[in-house]
Amino acid sequence: MERWWAAIRIAFGTVLLADAILEWQPAVYRIFLPLAYGVAGASPPGLQGVLLAADHLLARNPVAANALLAALETLLALAILAGYGASTALLVVVPLFVAIWVVGQGLGLPFVPGTTDINSGLLYVLLALALWRARSWQRLSVWAWVHRAAGPAGAGRPRRSRLAQLGAGLVVLTVVGLGAGSARTQAAVAGAPAPAARAGAMLATDPATHRTLLFGGCGPLVCDGGTWTWTGRRWVRNHPAHSPTPRGYGAMAFDPATGQTVLFGGAGGLGGGTTRGDTWLWARGQWAEVHPTVAPAPRRFPTLVADPATGTLVLFGGDRGSGGLLGDTWIWTGTGWRQAHPARAPAPRTGAAAAYDPALHEVLLFGGNGGQGPLGGTWAWDGRTWTPLRSRQHPPPRAYEGMATDMAARTVILFTGATNEPRGATWRWGAQGWVPVPSRRLPAALSFAALAPAPSGEGVLLFGGEGPLGPSAGLWALGPGGWRQVGVSRGAAPPHPGDV
Q1: Residue 445 · residue 429 · CB < 8 Å
Q2: Which residue from 24, 204, 273, 369 could staple onto 269, CB 3.0 to 4.6 Å apart?
């Protein structure tokens, strides 16, 4: 029986070492994976406070936190594999993975409907306790090898000699492993050929240049401030002299009247960070902040859509970041903001989605979170007021969904969001109202995904978002044949095995 426990210990150490190697990947956002997206908001107040406190603490230096976790897991795995110091290592595994299970894995995500996975953290804790109780290091281990070398009591020289050999070997392995892992992490982060996984990014397409601009978005710990361009074939990292502060959950749209892309608002994180109310313009490869005399209040999750019929951009709703919902309508004229005062408007909401309908020559708005849950209903903006629209069938209520215009088909595409639909779904608005769009494959991200018209003018693009495995780095295109993945992000880290 002792040999069986020893074999299980070696297998456990191997898995833990593989886990540590994955931690050395450039996924600097995946320390403990605080579940700010949905789980924290749905969890009891006590656990919600723990999740957000850990989020803020680790976000101060995510690279250092990731290196510390990877180094600790590496040392624990080596001790368990060798069987020397395994007793202490197994006891350290218990509180470490209790923390990972609670903070990083949300107690197995019990607050997400339909999720039953208990995750690896709890399994690691139970297995470590069992291996410690069975004293599994007394067979097939360096511990046994050293103690056999000691011989009768008092014969300490062979034991000291073997301990010195063991110590020197562990030091060399640790230095080489940590150095190689750190070098790979820094090199991969510096030269990643594609945007890393994120949710709440902002996406806008310039039909004149056939390029799509991506800015910001947030991982589980920190938000990004990088600017990327999708050429239709590959991602290109831009290096403007000035940029908006790192953020996600704002709004961005291309203004055909001026040839500029306008970015407004957002926040430094879903669970925390400053809510923004600044306006930035992107043109000729550079960002420039503008300071209009009048501007909308700072907010997260507003909608911002180009209205070619009036030559303006239309901004609606959002929230203040502290729970206050907004239902105001603002117009970007190309040089400044002015508030509209429509006779009728949708109720205040955050996380709605909007897109321009080329057939109706109006802006469509759907869904959002009204404070009591997701909303349904479709509204149209004609340049003066909002009007509710009817449809024979319609998507179930939802929030934090994505919408974009399919210019070639002259329709509007809606993708999932936070809803009670059993699985992800795509809807199309046309002459018959809303109709579901069949597709064999669907993007893994269900909420907080960024959508924009495809650079070719046919179909739409979708990037990132939050799905069952956390933030996504996937870029997807919807065409006549359904969804297909494009621009695979080879530089983005794969999901951590414990992140499910």
Answers
A1: no
A2: 273
